[in-house]
Design goal:
homotetramer, about 160 residues, alpha+beta, 6 strands
């Protein structure tokens, strides 16, 4: 996950709010990051959070005979949702007056390290990745991520450490 | 990395040798795994080993303004080269008479877990992933992987634990 | 975590049952592993599971001014409870008739790799480590571990991959 | 690894130099951290770097029949040397005029996450842990650590992410 550095270059004529800033970050991840579009990742906003969905396609598999998702797709989804949730949760915790500063800071967000645990073969029609923050610092955020298929089978766990700015 | 289960289904009229089996595994990774083709991974056989190369393309980036590789591409390359080298090194260590058994066993090879350390932004024109075995067991192999760009900049480290059969 | 190889050397005049074998493994971890005694780890059997407790002592801290647990103590506890739970859950899943074989196999159990995430400073009077199996294979088991203090503060997460035999 | 917060409280009548500050940090790790003394860790300054040594003692083993080091001792040593080298290398990179500020910052240094790969059973008479920095940031430093025995056998690898301040 390498967050777009133009987070900070987007102009906003109106006052920045938490809601606007979160929507904007999701827009950046969804519409402007080429690899996320290449994978056809779908960003699903749910209440106050976000999940990542991808539908099975042959080109995402690591195996021509079976329909198993390539481990790289799993890693890509976990890294992406972890970074996105790290940013969103940080925005939520930031006082309104400090959002412009945070926006500048987020411009250089990136993954420091990530662990992926592959629990079972990635079989299914739809895969959903979610994340939650487990360590929240001013500059470093750690997330736990999960990937499930449409039956609720738990495909993979992830742990990602992200640098915000 | 989920290794093709049809490793074991390929018929071979001729006697199995280490060299043939290694070539066959590289062929499977290169030509039959859809996601590897989707990423346009190039498999480079070098002496007794193999490396993975990918040329920069916009669709592999995580950022429209910069040319930085998406962390998911890095993870995909490291996972793939780690799994491939784990298999190749295991083949090399296996007595000729046991290669047919190993071929059956490899059919269910897969990644157990992987850590990726992102050292610097993935800038460059060409990226090369390499791997070496650091723990060799009869069923579990651990590899260290690296990603460099064409200037030799070290982009990322990886550590992968693979189950062979 | 390196499991005692004398698991298999303990003689048992009576028939082996799941309950006996689990009690015996806990006994081995608690009473015969020198470093566990050195740390004064307390093994608490709870219903069908086990937790690990340690009371704060100055010699377990990494800091003379504060009372913060040394990260190595956290890692030691997580590794130990992960390995123990990996074995216990494997015993539970094994048919009675195969327990003697499993006992032999467990003799060479050991940790393949472990990740520890330090969530907050290890302050407290008592620390409890727990584990659950997230991937169960015939030879490789992956556990998630947690460390909490007596107030329920979540001190650390762990993920361990263990080779059983 | 939780670095002593009194790094910044040590008074220094004389001007702070790189050499003095490094010596002082090694002193803190060696003489004031109770768990490091409990393990009887020996800090060996070598040229411009430092290594960690421990001699085999029964109480450091995980096994009464064999002489194998407990995985928690390995993790403790790797975490400690990684954190120490992260600090030392950061000191070296810091301009003289900024050392006092760095000293304040280091007061809250700690480990964010660590991975340990156990390569072979920890047999030997003496174990030496070393570390090198692989990612250097102003606040976050990533190290690779290694543990060898006196014969040069490679016992374990580690990767640690440290927050400096």
């Amino acid at each position: 996950m390498t967050v777009s550095e133009h987070v900070s270059h987007e102009s906003s004529e109106n006052a920045l709010t938490h809601k606007k800033m979160i929507s904007h970050v999701i827009h950046l991840f969804r519409d402007t990051m080429p690899f996320n579009r290449f994978l056809q990742l779908v960003f699903e906003e749910q209440n106050d959070s976000v999940a990542l969905r991808v539908n099975w396609r042959e080109e995402l598999t690591g195996n021509p005979m079976q329909k198993i998702l390539h481990g790289g797709v799993t890693a890509s989804m976990l890294d992406t949702i972890g970074g996105l949730v790290a940013i969103i949760e940080t925005i939520k915790q930031t006082p309104l007056s400090e959002l412009p500063t945070l926006r500048e800071q987020l411009a250089t967000t990136g993954t420091i390290d990530m662990r992926v645990d592959y629990l079972r073969p990635g079989r299914g029609e739809t895969f959903v990745a979610t994340a939650e923050v487990i360590r929240r610092g001013s500059r470093v955020v750690v997330c736990r991520m999960e990937l499930h298929n449409e039956k609720g089978d738990h495909i993979a766990f992830g742990t990602g450490t992200y640098m915000l700015g």
